[in-house]
């Protein structure tokens, strides 16, 4: 398959890239400042330029989404709006504009996270964004068929515990290799409208 991978330079994106290319897929990487194609997907014009440059593809895979972590009392409007733009609007636009560029039976795989179901202090903006993406996936699935759409919703990565364990107290971590397999399930499988929760 010919796949667009957004956020390929991050820890998750690198693991997904390695896994998908290892399975014989042709993967074109996308990032703001690195990758085969360089576009800002938080800007609808950037998404349009991305699809114009990429041409037809079989799947779009997102491993990118920025959200701020702050106590609720300190969250200013620009913070939760930044979370919405950085993780929700950007991924919605990948799908909205991508429908015309993805194969008839192609797929979209978006990224959410454990905070949609297991909120933590300072994570309100992330919980909001993750929940919105998951609701969108379920809604979009009934409209874009026979194209498919799913989301991957991991816990904190085992490989990131040194930096982020304080944000996820008591939550079991998940290995990046296992998260990458959820992307394989979404890209190569037949399901749609699913949120793959890990662990």
TrEMBL record:
Keyword Magnesium on entry: no
CDD domains: Lin1944_like_SDR_c (cd11731)
Coiled-coil positions: none
Alphabetical list of InterPro entries matching this protein: NAD(P)-bd_dom_sf, SDR_DHRS6-like, SDR_fam
Keywords for the protein's UniProt record, in alphabetical order: Oxidoreductase
Superkingdom of source: Bacteria
Cross-referenced Pfam families: adh_short_C2
Keyword rRNA-binding: no
Any one GO molecular function term: oxidoreductase activity
Family, per entry: Belongs to the short-chain dehydrogenases/reductases (SDR) family.
PANTHER family (UniProt xref): DIHYDROANTICAPSIN 7-DEHYDROGENASE
Name of the protein in its database record: Short-chain dehydrogenase
């Amino acid at each position: 398959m010919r796949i667009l991978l957004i956020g390929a330079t991050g820890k998750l994106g690198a693991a997904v890239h390695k896994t998908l290319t290892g399975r014989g897929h042709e993967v074109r990487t996308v990032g703001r400042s690195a990758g085969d194609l360089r576009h800002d997907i938080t800007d609808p014009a950037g998404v349009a330029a991305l699809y114009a440059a990429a041409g037809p593809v079989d799947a779009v895979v997102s491993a990118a989404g920025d959200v701020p972590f702050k106590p609720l009392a300190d969250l200013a409007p620009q913070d939760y709006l930044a979370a919405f733009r950085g993780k929700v609007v950007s991924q919605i636009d990948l799908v909205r504009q991508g429908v015309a560029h993805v194969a008839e039976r192609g797929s979209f795989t978006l990224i959410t996270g454990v905070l949609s179901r297991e909120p933590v202090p300072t994570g309100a903006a992330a919980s909001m964004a993750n929940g919105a993406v998951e609701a969108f996936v379920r809604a979009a699935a009934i409209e874009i068929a026979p194209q498919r759409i799913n989301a991957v919703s991991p816990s904190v990565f085992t490989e990131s515990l040194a930096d982020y364990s304080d944000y996820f107290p008591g939550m079991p971590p998940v290995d990046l290799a296992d998260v990458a397999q959820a992307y394989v399930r979404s890209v190569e499988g037949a399901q749609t409208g699913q949120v793959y929760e890990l662990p």
